[in-house]
Amino acid sequence: MEKRVNQIKQQLSAHSYKLTPQREATVRVLLENADDHLSAEDVYLLVKEKAPEIGLATVYRTLELLSDLQIIHKLNFGDGVTRYEFRAEGAEHHHHHLICLNCGTVDEITEDWLGPIERRIEKEYEFQIVDHRLTFYGICQRCKGQDVDPKKLAGSKVT
Q1: Overall pTM surpassing 0.70 (yes/no)
Q2: 77-101: buried (b, 16+ CB within 10 Å) or exposed (e) per residue?
Q3: What pLDDT tens digit does each residue of the chain (159 aa) get?
């Protein structure tokens, strides 16, 4: 974790920002929960446990800064809640997600299978792709054998 914190400190410094204690607390919470897709409120509640003096606005500003510097990604899974996750070190693109419409679990696909499609789009449409995101909605392996509430699925907001 210390290595990643130092890398982030260097990234901030390269853009004339400092890793203040408040920013560091936020970064550490994100790193400690790297497998989760935390909302700003989730981050705030976890940061508050470590540093009670930090306000919600500070956490929001830190998340915005980290997002602007492409240290973290903003994610929206169609439920109106913005979530955050770290951009994978050395990754050329964002990874993809599988969202279960029954239990809400979010699984990740770390392989990038869209390279050939990107090249085709760039060639045929003369469109320079900077990044892409792909989200699949369905029923996860944990829920497949269970009774799934059709009303729950019909009411899901997939955009």
Answers
A1: no
A2: beeeeebbbbbeeeeebbbbbbbbb
A3: 899 999 999 999 999 999 999 999 999 999 999 888 899 999 999 999 999 999 999 999 999 999 999 899 888 777 788 889 887 655 555 677 888 888 888 887 877 788 888 899 999 999 998 877 788 888 998 888 887 766 666 555 554
Q: What letter represents residue 13's amino acid?
A: S
Task: Count CA within 13 A, CB hemisphere, residue 30.
Answer: 27
Answer CATH for 1-90 from 3.40.50.20, 1.10.10.10, 2.30.170.40, 3.30.420.40: 1.10.10.10
User: What is each CA distance from 128 to 23, 103, 113, 125, 157, in whole angstroms?
Assistant: 33, 37, 18, 9, 30
The domain ranges of the chain are 1-90, 91-159
CB contact at 8 A, 97 and 107: yes
91-159: CATH architecture: 2-Layer Sandwich (3.30)
